[in-house]
Known about the structure:
Largest sheet: 6 strands, mixed
Strand content: 15-25%
Strand order of the largest sheet: 3-2-1-4-6-5
Order of helices and strands: HEHHEEHEHEE
Helix content: 25-40%
Number of strands: 6
Distance between the termini: 24 Å
Amino acid sequence: xxxxxxxxxxxxxxxxxxxxxxxxxxxxxxxxxxxxxxxxxxxxxxxxxxxxxxxxxxxxxxxxxxxxxxxxxxxxxxxxxxxxxxxxxxxxxxxxxxxxxxxxxxxxxxxxxxxxxxxxxxxx
Length: 124
């Protein structure tokens, strides 16, 4: 990911096999230190957003979802990493609503036998 998409905004679904997702999920058990670890992760991975279908807001930068819409709209390239076609379909619907881009499209650039996929998104 770092090599091919270093200048891209990367959105990973919770459950995707990505180190940032693993570190983000690990913060759930960090108790009163959670904000400290969010801050460290946000500094180290500023171009990552986590998509969690099980929370109300769905999107979160590592620490929070501040300025999410402009971040999405101003990105030259958006990459979505997931482990489920259902999550991807839900994500695209939410993305179209959030950005008010009903014609947003995608291209699958990688898939494996475990159901993991990487998509490039186009907010047309």
